[in-house]
TrEMBL record:
It comes from Spirosoma liriopis. Residues 455-661 form the Peptidase S9 prolyl oligopeptidase catalytic domain. Residues 1-20 form the signal peptide. SUPFAM superfamilies: alpha/beta-Hydrolases, DPP6 N-terminal domain-like. This enzyme catalyzes the hydrolysis of the N-terminal peptide bond of an N-acetylated peptide to generate an N-acetylated amino acid and a peptide with a free N-terminus. It preferentially cleaves off Ac-Ala, Ac-Met and Ac-Ser. Also, involved in the degradation of oxidized and glycated proteins. It comes from the Bacteria. This is Acyl-peptide hydrolase. Keywords: Acetylation, Hydrolase, Protease, Serine protease, Signal. Gene3D superfamilies: alpha/beta hydrolase (3.40.50.1820), TolB, C-terminal domain (2.120.10.30). It holds the Pfam family Peptidase_S9. InterPro entries: 6-blade_b-propeller_TolB-like, AB_hydrolase_fold, Pept_S9_AS, Peptidase_S9_cat, WD40.
């Protein structure tokens, strides 16, 4: 290379280096960013602890759907590799016990049912392992890597007609419909053992009961699983832990006898104990439950309730590698943190918390865990938790976040009219001048037994980017504040929750955050239901957006999927009609509503069917209150088609802008 060429090359490199260091101009997030956001899911650790495989879904805008591929990242965080890349989604990736292979589920090559595929983790084409004729719900490798435990649904013979005309649904179950599943005829889910070498499928369980959540004992001789073996499982929420030898013709043994729910079993490394999650209560309070960590001997007996005095829900129990502690995720006030219990003395240690939310947990080695975490400025990423310190493993969302200017997020506590202290989260547009009163949207979470946390919240970020302060209210009925707080709304809907929403409203108005003349409210599911309750109680809100909600609760009996809860909590409508009518006040007192309201619903929603929104739309339309009804074709309770997700946010902003933004000349 000549000196002139060398100088030109150096000048070019210097110029490029300068460009690389130029900061990206930030912009507010907008609804098209929905198409850019990836979703990380289902991380699994390799047997040697050196790799983690996970699913990563991206939006295919041409097909208007999400497609999930599989990725691996190394424990040291230095390597990341995509291991599948095709038009068909892959899910449920699992390492073989020897760590040489990765299995996954996919409906490749035009298959109508998801099949298990197997690929060498070092590379090469995946091979189809199964040829299942019915739907696969779960699968687990045996410890020796020679077999798989499968959870399969019974075949749907009614849908096997030679023509495209389906046979009529024949329904005689108490619980006869469910969101996404549709109408429920006869049929259950059962356990099977699949021999990988011979491809032989052995049936372990049969009958009218479901079996779920299988886990192998460390020696591979038994499976623990969950089932409701009561005479009529549709009429209660009882589940127990059972064990069965992993061979055809074996007899199951019941380990737990609690009248509530026992779920999420995991064997200890030595095979002597099973940790699981048990409901706090039985009977009527299960909807407002607070699960505790329990441990039982492999042969049964009285369980040890390790988190009984914590008064916070726990989930996702995982044994440490040495079997001396059990890691759990704990739902606390506006956060989910990582903790662990010592088996010997029951001592609890909080490993890491803060204004963030953790999900997923897997043991790596002594004192080390793999986890997933999110905070208000960062969507979920993989992390190493080492001796109480976090080390980030993936950077899935760096490109998504790079150009975005996000809302600032902070917590505050408000006081309700009856004195209740309520925890809330406030989103404010970036660079909001101090002391500027903002149009404010109260976006209410569903559940009701759920909570808003210090995690990345796409919907509220998008609303805030529209120029709004956005308030998340953890009303009574939410979890994270103890069992009494959660049970406070039992059989009394739309009362204390509305007091809490109005108390938070008073707070942000008094603090000069919210413009009292430009208040809006909205939500989805129970958030939509509470939107209806609130606008029927108070006229201060100038606009509302009620999604997947209901108001004439009496009319929901037999229409949605909650008959069992209704009869337990409210009593049968013909026996307790006054209670049902009292809880139906947003519809029966619709003439009190003055708030222009946008109603939304999924066409095929069996959770909170569209009729709940249709009734309120018709009522307001008859009363002359500005209203509109949006039905998303083919959608269930959750809106999954990307363009519909974008459309929903756009309609929120258009509706709120119309009534909450001052008109400009």
């Amino acid at each position: 290379m000549t000196n002139r060429s060398l100088l030109l090359a150096l000048a070019t490199l210097t110029s490029l280096s300068g460009l690389a260091q130029t900061p990206i101009k930030k912009r507010p997030i907008n609804s098209t960013d929905i198409y850019r956001l990836h979703t990380l899911s289902d991380p699994q650790v390799s047997p040697d602890g050196k790799w983690i495989v996970y699913g990563l879904s991206t939006v295919d805008t041409t097909k208007d759907k999400r497609n999930a591929d599989l990725w691996m990242t190394s424990w040291d965080g230095k390597e990341s590799v995509q291991i599948t890349n095709g038009p068909d989604s892959e899910s449920k990736a699992r390492f073989s016990p020897d760590g040489k292979y990765i299995s996954f589920v996919s409906a490749r090559q035009g298959a109508t049912k998801g099949q298990i595929w197997l690929m060498d983790r070092r590379g090469g084409e995946a091979k189809k392992l199964t040829d299942l004729k019915t739907d696969l719900d779960e699968y687990v490798w045996s410890p020796d890597g020679k077999k798989l435990a499968l959870v399969l649904q019974d075949p749907d013979y009614a849908d096997s007609a030679k023509t495209k005309v389906r046979k009529p649904y024949v329904l005689d179950r108490y619980h006869f419909k469910a969101d996404m599943k549709g109408y429920l005829e006869k049929g259950s889910t059962h356990l099977y053992v699949y021999d990988i070498a011979t491809k032989k499928l052995d049936t372990l369980t049969t009958g009218a009961h479901d079996e779920t959540s299988p886990v192998w004992s460390p020696d591979g001789s038994q499976l623990a699983f969950v089932s409701n073996r009561t005479d009529d499982p549709d009429r209660n929420q009882n589940t127990d832990i059972y064990v069965i030898d992993a061979r055809k013709g074996a007899t199951m043994k019941q380990l737990t006898t609690w009248a509530g729910s026992d779920n999420s079993p995991v064997w200890s490394p030595d095979g002597k104990r099973i940790a699981y999650v048990r409901s706090t209560a039985s009977g009527n309070f299960l909807m407002y439950d607070q699960p505790v960590l329990a441990v039982i001997n492999q042969d049964g007996g009285e369980p040890k309730l390790l988190s009984k005095t914590l008064d916070r829900p726990v989930r996702n129990p995982k044994w440490s590698k040495d079997g001396q502690t059990i890691g759990v995720l704990v739902l606390d006030d506006r956060q989910t943190y990582v903790g662990q219990y010592a088996l010997a003395d029951g001592k609890f240690t909080k490993l890491i918390g803060g204004n963030r939310s953790f999900s997923d947990l897997e043991a790596i080695s002594a004192g080390n865990w793999m986890t997933v975490s999110s905070d208000p400025q960062t969507p979920s990423e993989l992390y190493a938790l080492e001796n109480g310190n976090l080390r980030r493993l993936t950077h899935v969302h760096d490109a998504f976040l790079a150009p975005l200017e996000l809302a600032t997020v902070e917590g505050f506590t408000s006081k309700s009219k009856d004195g209740a202290q309520v925890s809330n989260i406030l989103f404010k547009p970036a660079n909001t001048p101090a002391n500027k009163k903002l149009p404010t949207i109260f976006y209410i979470h569903g559940g009701p037994v759920s909570q808003d946390e210090f995690s990345f919240d796409l919907t509220r970020q998008l609303l805030s980017a529209g120029g709004y302060a956005v308030v998340a209210v953890n009303y009574r009925g939410s979890n994270g504040r103890g069992i009494d707080y959660t049970k406070a709304i039992y059989s009394d809907w739309g009362n204390k929750e509305v007091l809490d929403i109005l108390g938070a409203t008073d707070y942000v108005v008094e603090k000069g955050i919210a413009d009292p003349d430009r208040l809006g409210i909205g939500g989805w599911s129970y958030g939509g239901i509470l939107t209806n309750y609130t606008i029927a109680t108070d006229t201060r809100f100038k606009a509302a957006a009620s999604g997947a909600g209901s108001s004439l609760q009496l009319s929901m009996y037999g229409v949605d999927q909650y008959t069992n809860q209704y009869e337990s909590e409210l009593g049968a409508p013909w026996k307790n009609t006054d209670k049902w009518l009292k809880l139906s006040y947003p519809f029966l007192k619709a003439d009190r509503i003055k708030t222009p309201t946008l109603f939304m619903a999924g066409e095929k929603d069996f959770n909170v069917p569209s009729s709940g929104s249709e009734q309120m739309f018709q009522a307001l339309r008859s009363l002359g209150i500005p209203t509109q009804l949006i039905i998303y074709p083919g959608q269930f309770h959750g809106i999954t088609i990307p363009s519909y997700q974008k459309d929903r946010v756009d309609r929120y902003l258009q509706w709120f802008d119309k009534y909450l933004k001052p008109k400009t000349l």
